Each structure stands twice: as structure tokens, then as C-alpha cells.
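Hey Z.,

So I finally got round to the zinc ion thing we talked about over coffee. Here's the setup:
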Amino acid sequence: MVILCLLFVIRNSFAQTIINRDSEIEQMVKEVSSDSLKSYILKIVSFGTRNTLSTTTDKKRGIGSAREWVVQKFNEFAKNSSGRMTAYVDTITLQPDGRRVDVAISLGNAMATLKGTDPNDDRIYIISGHLDSRVTDVMNRTADAPGANDDGSGVAAVIECARIMSRHSFPATIIFVAVSGEEQSLLGSGYLADKAKKQNWNIDAMLNNDIMGSNNSNETNIIDNTRLRVFSEAYSTTDTGRIAQNIRNLGLENDGKARQLARYVKEIGERYVDNLQVVMIYRNDRFLRGGDHTPFVQKGYAAIRFTEMNENFNHQHQDLRTEKGIVYGDLPEFMDFEYLRKNTGINLACLANLAKAPSMPQDVKVDVRNLSNSTTLTWKDSKNGKAKGYYILMRETTSPIWQNKRYTSQTSITLPYSKDNYFFAVQSVNDNGNESLPVVPGVGR
Ligand SMILES: [Zn+2]
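And the result:
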């Protein structure tokens, strides 16, 4: 009976939390166009192969001409950005590594940076896809490797977000990147994550999009364009020593940075995009497979992966061929551009909401001085941006998502719920209703 009452209270208060869409974000999400996405994919497929080892000197074929084209698109969009967007190919020379690089190559990430309008705000948000493609043999650099879905879909999402967001301004900085070398062992994203760490970039969130524009698997015959998977690690492997002890003591094994970001994406994505459910998968990536968010996760950043609900392995990492009436290969004809439009919209909504929001509240603590069945939380104002107030989040310990969200304009709150039985977190929110990532309280004595 007691449990039933508590559940009623939670559901009841959750239902009372009505959060309106920010009209600017709503408008931007509406501008995401399946035709634009399709046109980008047809263009990058036209470069024949984008294998990381392919030519960088041919004007029409290979990874070199493909990355130049992406930067050219970024530069077109930059014209509408009042000088805030800059684009370039960030290149490094790699020597043979005895594994998936057998000659010296020039590896290049196509980057666009939309600088934040607040000079004191050093937050960075990154959206990525990988430009390189492959066939059955990852070392084959000459055969046609269209890579329409893997990962033309992710690159198209990055380009479309850059097109729309370049016309708007955000206090924090957004980086749009089509990395290279993913299939050759995450080389481009590894290079970028290293650079970010060495230069102390304050990356609040990294959204990696890889294989997110096709709606069916050949094996199951399930067609699904209403669900998108988001992969996230429970907590970071960089959390060691006292941090790891704290995770154990407070039962925070499901509240790491990436998991918290995945929860945020579910809430904000579903707030702005209709007929699309974000499905949280509780692992860093698919079984024994990797992606470009992983080097960022390993450096301690909040990074997650978006992937379609049902991968089709006839159209992934395959030589183009027909066998027994089955067409193999990653071709545009197998894509669902309407599904890709929705998945891109989720990325855009989350990036925009994060980059418009004040930074996270600071020094969030749960008071443990006295044993009590109520919970007192305290915090300090955001470092950047103007917080109008704060959302207090609450969930049962077994719930994957926040169940209760209430607003306060104060910097402390006492709730008649026990910290033994619920998880809590605090978000900053501004006048437009853009909320920061949540902060789980530390111990306050
Ligand atoms: Zn991929």
C-alpha cells in the first residue's frame, strides 16, 4: 500500500511537469529536410570509394575529394553565420601501423566550428559521423564502397545540422565533424579526442552518429522507423580511486556522464521529434564493436552513439554484388530518408538545447549531516549563462529515466522523499526552458 501511494505521488507530479518546446529549436527541427539529407548522401557516394587508404589526389574519386567537398559545404553555410563558423580539414600524416594502415597516409577530419557568442563560455558540444567507407576487405582501397548508411547517414546528419544551426547563435561552441579512419580503427576520432584532451577542451557532450538511416534488417524482416538506439557507458573507465569508491558507496553505477547524457537525449529528443522513441541501450556500443565516441569516452568525456534500431548486415561492409538474387552493398536505395530526418532532428534538438542552456549548476550536494527521511539538496549558480532557476530530478533506484521533474528558483530544496530510496539530480534552466545536463549530488557535510 505504501509503495502504491508513493508511485501515485511520483506519477502524479510527473504529469504536472509540462515543459513547452522552445520555438526557436522547434523551428530548426522543422527545417531538417529528408531531401537535403538524400542529396548529401548521393553526393558523397559519387566519390566511388571513401576508404581511408584511397586516393587523396584525384579530384573526383576517393577520401581526399570527399573531405574537400564536405568542407566546401561547411564554408557555404559559414557565409550565413556572421563570421562565427569556420571550416577546415584537420590533417595528420600517419605511418604504417602493421594493422589497418599499410602505407603512409594523410588522414583528414572535415571540421566546422560554430563559435559561441559568450566569450566567457568555454563549453563545446560535438556532433560527429565518419566519412570513410569500406567493403568486405577493409584494406581494399579501390573497389566501389558507397557507404551510404555507414556512415553517409551520420555525415549527412552532421552537414544538415551545420546548415541549419549556422544561421543561429548559441552561447556555447558547437563542432560539426566528419572524421576519417573509423574503419581503420577509430583513427580520426582518436586523433581528435587526443587533441581535445591535450588542449583542455571543455567538451560537455559528444554525439556520434553511425549507421542511422535504414529501417530494416534482412534477417528478421522487421521494419522500424519509429525507434532510435542510443548507446552509453554506465560510468567511465577513467573513474578510479576515490571516484570509483564514491560510485560504489552511493550506488551511482547507472549515473555516469554518458548514461546521464543518454537520459537527457531521450527526454529532449522525444520533446522535439514526434513519432520517434529513443531506446537507451545500457552498453557503450554494440556487442564487441566500436565507434568514434569511444576515444572520447576513454578520455573521460560524456560521449554516446546513435544507431538505427535494426542493422542490415547485407548492406554493411560488403562488396557490391548480387548472389542468389540478394543485392549486397551499402547503397542509397536501401535507406529511409524520412527516418534519417527524424534521427537528425533529435541530434539538432539536443545540441541546440544544450548550447542554449546555462552551464550545469555547481557544487551540488546532498546534506548528510542528520539522518532523515527527507532529502535536502544545495547547489551554486551556473558558471556560464543566466539560470532563471533549476529543475530537481528524481527517480526510483530501479527506474532508467527521471520520473519527477520540479522547478525551483532557489539554490536549495528539501523534499519529503528519502535519499535512500531515490536518485536525485539538479539542472540549470533559463527563461526559454533550455536545461543543462543534470548533476548528481555529491556528499555534503
Ligand atoms: Zn560506421
